[in-house]
Design a protein that fits this description.
about 90 residues, alpha+beta, two-stranded antiparallel sheet, 2 helices, flat
């Protein structure tokens, strides 16, 4: 998948973040699942006979948190770990 624009409650397309284990998509329900459907349609248009997609959904209501916030949180925790060999 490729980035398709920022997530926005006003109806803009969801945002994506490519990482080693796949692609994270951030946005409202309908645009996110529409983006996944569009990816399938594009692959079928390229004559892919079969597509396997795994979707994991992570939602929260206690606060707003972007993809970048989640990455920054993990990076901050990793900085607190002792360095190897110390």
């Amino acid at each position: 998948m490729t980035p398709i624009g920022p997530a926005d409650p006003a109806g803009r397309p969801p945002r994506t973040l490519l990482h080693p284990n796949g692609t994270a998509i951030e946005g409202e329900w309908a645009p996110v699942f529409t983006a996944i459907e569009a990816c399938h349609a594009a692959l079928y248009a390229m004559n892919a006979p079969r597509i396997f997609t795994t979707v994991k959904v992570n939602t929260r209501t206690d606060r707003d948190q972007t993809l970048e916030d989640k990455v920054a949180s993990v990076e901050a925790l990793l900085q607190q770990l002792p360095k190897r060999g110390q």
